[in-house]
Amino acid sequence: MKPARHLWTAALLLGLALPANAFETRATSAFVLDQTTGTVLLAKNADEPLPPASMSKLMTVYMAFEAIRDGRLRLDERLPVSQHAMDYTGSTMFLNTRDKVRVEDLLRGIIILSGNDACAVIAEALSPDGTEAGFARLMTQRAQQLGMTNSTFANSNGWPALGQRMSMRDLALLANLLIKDFPEFYGLFAEREFDFDGRAPQNRLNRNPLLGAVAGADGLKTGHTEEAGYGLVGSAKQGDRRVIFVISGLPSAQARAEQSAAITNWAFRQFAERSVVKAGTRLAEVPVWMGSAKTVGLVPAEDVTALFSSLAGSEVEGEIVFNGPVPAPVAKGQALGELVIARGDLAELRIPLVADADVEKGGFVNRIVTVSGLLLNRLNTNENAM
What we know:
By secondary structure, this protein is an alpha+beta fold. It contains nine helices and 16 strands.
């Protein structure tokens, strides 16, 4: 049976009329997510596996948080530093093999100082075979389990290596998980400074250019290598909305800072969360076949809010799609159709619609009348066709 389609228009206090202006980013790849509504605002080469540089440290951090939650690590536990970990250069905590470092300090060293050595220490502690390579294989497996289908790891810290790849969408998914799954630890990402044992005063400041510069910015991780360029996994919360974004491939730290601020401001200023329809609002009626009532109402089961362009006007227009008539009996809350609303450059909104009442099977007389009416209709159709 071909789905029936009904045009639905409602004048709302807030609604949809104009698409927001698309953001033209200088990054070679980017992904912007409105976390509150799950709406993708921008995707540019978002599923291409690319060298993630230090942004891949977020996977090591996530797995460390899981280990703490599960009791396999303690924040006050002290971990030894191997020669392998000490040999890392680049951004480090300047650890040496005489150290035994608290897990909490190692986490700050990763998040704030981007310590390559700190990542290796955590990796060796959690690795099934005690090596960083073994932990990298575990990272790849866990990433797949979490839905990061374009991520593979060769090390724990993003040091350039064959097979160290993540997509921008995967990094945004990971950031979303860090924020949702570990709110008790998320505050670490907003810390501006960590002076570990006075060892590296030149490497004590958080490199995230959004912190203190953009309202509500509170995370997450920068990255830079010659191959990857400059990148950032960023997040900010303003009011009830949170935005997560990932950019990569920028030519300088200044370009990264400028693009990060511009994307954040664009995401908050060009879009707004708005009420579409209230739960229980009857939007249409579906004919019922051989029921105690001829029709049943279509309603959304929950209040519906969604993200729209902040330039929108006062009307929402959509299509109600359903298969009908629906055979009795019909149960209240039974899924019967959808309200489909276009949103310009954003993905269309599809709102499930359900029956607003029970409809029992009709009695004997009711069924006879229904069948008789159907037969008469067919006879009339045949006669008119002759």
